[in-house]
Every structure is written in C-alpha cells, then in structure tokens.
C-alpha cells in the first residue's frame, strides 16, 4: 500500500478527530459537572453553525465580530437550557434526564433548519482553500486551522480547571452534596458547564461548517463526539485528545481503504463500532475513573 | 357516576387478581374492541389504510419498546433497527415460500436473536452507556442492511413483500383483511403485556427497573432478566416490523427504519406513559397523528390567511413537535397520557368524594 496515501489519510483524520474531541469536550464537561449525558451536543453544534451563518453571511457581519457574537449567543443558549429544562429535572431517574436531552436534540433539529432552511449553507470564514503540501502528502488547510483551534480550546479548558471556577467545577463533579455543603453554588457551576459546552459545540459547528457547509447533518456530530468521549473515558479531558486522534485516524483510514471495497458509507459506522467495542471491552474508557457501586 | 366500587369484596385470589375488576372497564373494553374490529366497515378506505392500519402497527411496536423502557428500565434508541431486522427476515422468508405466520414468527426470532446479542453487549453497562450502545446498534444495523446486497438487494433497492396468505390457504388481499391481521397481532401483544406485570417475571423486571443491584441483592438474577427483557421486547419489535412490511408498506427499503423512526417510537413510549399498555396505544396514536393534524391545520391556515409559512418550516414541524412533546411531558407529566387517563379515572372512581382510600 502507498505509505504517502496512508500518511495523508492519517494526518487529515487526526485533524478531523480534534474537531470531534471538541464536541466530546462539551459532553465531558456536562458529565463531570452534573453526571448527565448530554445527547443534545450535536444539535448545539448545528445551532452554532446556523447562527454563525445567519450572522456572517445573512447579516453580513465580518468574521471577527460574528464569531464572538455566536459564542456569546451559544453560551446563553446553554445556560438557558440548563435553567429552563435541566434544573427542573434534578433528582429524576437518569433515563428521564437522558431522554430530556434527546428531546432538546430533536426539537432543535426541527426548529432551527425549519427557520433558516435545510439546504446546505456556505459559511466562508476567509480560510484559504489551497491545500498545504507536506512532502508528498496533501493537507486540507481548513482541517489544519480547525485542528489547531480545537487543540487550543481543549488546552484552554485544561487550564480552566486550574482557575477558581474550574476548581469549583471539579469540586461539584467530585461530590455535589459535599460541594453544596461547603457553600459552593452547585446550580451555578452546572449552568457554567452548560454555557461552556454551548461554546465548544458552537466552535465545532463553525469550524466544521466552514469545511462542509452548514445544514442539519452537523447534528450527526453527536455520535462522533460520544465515541470520543466514551473512548477517552467520560470524565477525562486529556483522554479526549487521545481518543479524538484515535477516532479521527481510524475513521479516515477505514473510509479511505474500505470505501472502494464495500461501496461507500463506512465513515459513518466507524464511530458506532468504536462505541460498541469500548462499551464491551473497557466501559470506563481509556482514562476514565472506574465507578464502583455499592448497595 | 360510571364507576362503582363500593368496598373490596374479593373472596378468592382469582377474583383479586382479575385484570379488570370494575364492570365499567370491562364494558369499555368490549366497546373498544367492537369499534376496533368494525373500523373497516364504517371508515373509508383512505382513512383505513392511511390512519387506522399504521396506528395499530405502531401501537404494537410501542408496546414492545415499552416493555423494555417502562418495564425493565432499559433505554433503547435503536428500536427501528430491531424492527428492520424483523421486517427483512420475514420478507426474505416469505419470498422463499414460508407461510405468512411462520415468516412473521421467524422475523420476530431473528430480531430477538440479533437484538439480544446487542443487548448482551450493552448489559455490562447501563443508563447512559446503554442508550449510546443502542444508538450505535442503530447505525451498525442500518449500515449492514444497506450495504449487504443479499439482505436489501442494494442500497437503493426496494424489496417487494409477498401477499398475506393465512395458513397457506386463505389469501388476504383487501385492506380490511390486512387491517384485521395487524389488529389481531396487536391484541395478542397487548394481552401478553397486560398479564406480564402480574407474573413473577413482570415483578422481577420491575425490581430491575427500580434498582438493578438492589434487585441482585434480593435474589433476582438481573443479567438473566435484563437479557430476557431484551429478547422479548426485540421479538415483539421484530413481529411488529414484519407486520409493518407485510400489511402496511408491502415493499421495504432501508430508509423506512432509520434513526428518526427510533426517536418517534421513543416519543410514543414517553408521551404515552412508561410501563403502561394503554399508554403505548394512546402515545402511538398521538405521535402518529399530531404532525399530520398540525400540517393539515397549517396548510389550511396558509391557504386561508395568505400567511407566509415556508415549505421548510412545514417540513420540519413534526421533528420540532416530537421534541417539544418529549420535553413537555417529561417536565410536566413524566408518566404521560396514561397518567392523565388514570387521574381522570380515579377522580370519577371516588366521585363525589375528593380522595381515594
């Protein structure tokens, strides 16, 4: 097999994997803060992409103004979702809370494309289209920019856990009731986690939207984000990076090598197979904490 | 009022375990059955095939999913994949010359086998992980069906279902006949599920739903019962898929069993009411009818008032409605339409007094 081709697939896949890690970051943040799996993360990424398109292309704002605006809007959306829906579900069975996030996902997937249209929207952020040559290998510029931005954002979130708010979040994730009893405002911490995951989802939506266009398929990010989050371990931020790279490279290699054999479409199930294998072999992921249950 | 229950006067366990101890419930059931059976006689053929038939089949599927979600407390986000396995297996059996009844049962068995393989994979984990594993199952089964030509006949192909022939002798060609076949399956499944909650099996499932490791402590083998819940539920799903293929679609394509259908089924179960048979039926009818009614209403509104509602918005309203219904019911009435029905019934039961018991 052609080594250069494989290397090219792996490199581009690794960069795309970083996008996935960005979606997974939101899932991990919310899971760490409140023990809730957020199945609406993909839809949040889609909303971020749509809002960015509406501001940058529809309203004609320059990118340097539109992008911060999108992030602010999405932070607000995350906080509002937590306040209006999730907080009222506190104390319910996990199955109910998972279903409510799925309800949010479905509703957003109906409302947003319904308002702005389901056709693919071009989101131009001024990233060049010319590929970069690395020896014989071609690297997609948009992937490179997106990968670097994702890396920076994930790095920032690691740093964030060292700040005051980050320590609060860690305390809440460790033991909500203990955190509450020492005067930490648990609700605020959880709302903060939702806000930040709105921002990370929006960043992923904008980055990926500028590559493939904005439409409802951005919400399919959910499966990739879940695959990364589960493979890395649901409560581990560094695990995200490793898992993101693994998922991205695996997806790219499998799609590049198997698609000609079986006739396309393998890209979509790599994440599903990774989820299933992780759950079977190592349910707590590569870096996750092992939970022990006692009666 | 309608209900009369002046004191509990059971003198034997049989009387105490009666499914419908109240005379009113028994009469209502009789009326409902008569109405359901005579539907083809007084409902026009268009409404029969477009409304009554699919509603009966979706109610069957929703009951199967409800056994798993409401009975055993296991989330399943890939139930449409289970139905797809049943549909494809039964249609292939039917095309190979197997009689209709055996083909449907074969579809159920295939779905139960594959469904519980995935279930067993997910049994090491629960809650969130289980939900995500079944989501993964949906994608993998979709892919398998679309990309193995031996199953689907190619990703764009349509597979014609053979016509229904009862016992290999009685051909069922009319819409009414197909409706009655679907109704019979629905009644069998419903009476099975009504009785499950009264058996030891149903009580074991309930303990697992409430706390699975506590169930383990009091001697319920939670692995075994979870697996059998997956098996039973997937079997019902497979049968429902087979009936869907034979009686309603009559030609199947992979697109009929995508993730959106799974979500629709989950919405039916939640809106209807977890763990309730009548809830599954109400939920199926509600989720099936709501977007159609809304669309009709909106189109009428657009025509009447010259409102500028885009085609895009109309096309996306069903999804938004499902989502809003799931959120709304979970927030306001987590036990769904069945609980609302139960509240009304209890109110009338003790009328003119205000409290029960």
TrEMBL record, chain A:
InterPro entries in the record: ABC_transp_permease (IPR001851), BCAA_transport_permease (IPR052157)
Keyword terms of this UniProt record: Amino-acid transport, Cell membrane, Membrane, Transmembrane, Transmembrane helix, Transport
Signal peptide interval: none
TM region positions: 12-31, 62-81, 93-116, 143-168, 189-210, 269-287
Mode of membrane association: Multi-pass membrane protein
CDD domains linked: TM_PBP1_LivH_like
Subcellular location, record wording: Cell membrane
Similarity-based family: Belongs to the binding-protein-dependent transport system permease family. LivHM subfamily.
Listed name of the protein: Branched-chain amino acid ABC transporter permease
Organism name: Tistrella bauzanensis
TrEMBL record, chain B:
Source organism of the structure: Tistrella bauzanensis
Keyword annotations of the record: Cell membrane, Membrane, Transmembrane, Transmembrane helix
UniProt name for this protein: Branched-chain amino acid ABC transporter permease
Family annotation (Pfam families): BPD_transp_2
Organism domain of life: Bacteria
Principal location listed in the UniProt entry: membrane
Transmembrane intervals: 27-44, 102-123, 179-197, 229-249, 261-293, 313-332
UniProt membrane topology term: Multi-pass membrane protein
Compartment(s) of residence: Cell membrane
């Amino acid at each position: 097999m052609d080594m250069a081709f494989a290397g090219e697939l792996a490199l581009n896949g690794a960069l795309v994997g970083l996008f996935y890690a960005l979606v997974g970051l939101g899932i991990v943040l919310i899971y760490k803060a409140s023990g809730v799996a957020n199945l609406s993360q993909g839809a949040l990424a889609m909303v971020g992409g749509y809002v960015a398109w509406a501001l940058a292309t529809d309203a004609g704002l320059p990118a340097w103004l539109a992008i911060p605006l999108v992030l602010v809007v999405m932070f607000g959306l995350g906080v509002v979702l937590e306040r209006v829906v999730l907080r009222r579900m506190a104390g319910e069975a996990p199955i109910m809370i998972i279903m409510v996030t799925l309800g949010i996902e479905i509703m957003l997937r109906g409302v947003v494309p319904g308002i702005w249209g389901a056709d693919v929207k071009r989101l131009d952020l001024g990233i060049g289209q010319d590929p970069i040559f690395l020896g014989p290998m071609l690297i997609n510029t948009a992937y490179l920019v997106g990968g670097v931005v994702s890396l920076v954002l994930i790095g920032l979130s690691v740093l964030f856990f060292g700040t005051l708010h980050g320590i609060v979040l860690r305390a809440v994730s460790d033991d909500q009731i203990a955190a509450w009893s020492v005067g930490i405002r648990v609700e605020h911490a959880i709302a903060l986690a939702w806000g930040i995951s709105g921002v990370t989802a929006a960043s992923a939506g904008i980055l990926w939207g500028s590559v493939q266009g904005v439409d409802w398929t951005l919400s399919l990010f959910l499966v990739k984000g879940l695959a990364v989050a589960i493979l890395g371990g649901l409560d581990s931020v560094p695990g995200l990076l490793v898992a993101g790279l693994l998922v991205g490279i695996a997806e790219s290699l499998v799609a590049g090598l198997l698609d000609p054999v079986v006739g396309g479409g393998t890209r979509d199930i790599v994440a599903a197979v990774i989820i299933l294998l992780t759950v079977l072999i190592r349910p707590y992921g590569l870096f996750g904490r092992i939970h022990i249950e006692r009666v | 009022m309608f209900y009369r229950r002046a004191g509990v006067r059971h003198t034997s366990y049989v009387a105490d375990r009666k499914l419908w101890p109240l005379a009113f419930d028994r009469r209502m059931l009789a009326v409902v059955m008569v109405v359901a059976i005579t539907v083809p006689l007084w409902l026009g053929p268009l409404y029969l095939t477009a409304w009554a038939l699919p509603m009966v089949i979706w109610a069957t599927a929703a009951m199967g999913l409800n056994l798993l979600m409401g009975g055993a407390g296991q989330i399943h986000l890939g139930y449409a994949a289970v139905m797809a396995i049943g549909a494809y297996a039964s249609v292939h059996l039917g095309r190979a010359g197997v009689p209709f009844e055996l083909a449907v049962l074969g579809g159920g068995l295939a779905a139960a086998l594959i469904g519980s393989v995935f279930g067993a994979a997910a049994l090491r984990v629960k809650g969130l992980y289980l939900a995500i594993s079944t989501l993964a199952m949906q994608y993998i089964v979709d892919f398998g069906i679309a990309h193995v030509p031996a199953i689907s006949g190619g990703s764009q192909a349509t597979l014609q279902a053979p016509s229904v022939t009862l016992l290999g002798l009685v051909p069922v060609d009319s819409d009414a006949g197909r409706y009655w076949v679907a109704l019979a399956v629905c009644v069998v499944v419903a009476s099975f599920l009504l009785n499950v909650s009264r058996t030891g099996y149903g009580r074991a499932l309930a303990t697992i739903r409430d706390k699975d490791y506590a169930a383990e402590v009091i001697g319920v083998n939670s692995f075994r019962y979870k697996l059998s819940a997956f098996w039973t539920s997937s079997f019902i799903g497979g049968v429902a898929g087979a009936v869907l293929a034979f009686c309603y679609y009559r030609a199947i394509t992979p697109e009929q069993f995508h993730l959106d259908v799974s979500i629709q089924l989950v919405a039916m179960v939640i809106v209807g009411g977890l763990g309730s048979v009548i809830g599954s039926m109400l939920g199926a009818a509600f989720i099936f009818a709501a977007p159609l009614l809304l669309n009709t209403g909106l189109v009428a509104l657009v025509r009447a008032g010259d409102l500028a509602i885009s085609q895009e918005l109309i096309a996306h309203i069903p999804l938004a409605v499902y989502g809003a219904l799931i959120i709304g019911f979970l927030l306001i009435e987590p036990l769904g339409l069945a609980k609302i029905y139960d509240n009304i019934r209890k109110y009338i039961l003790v009328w003119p007094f205000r409290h029960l018991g």
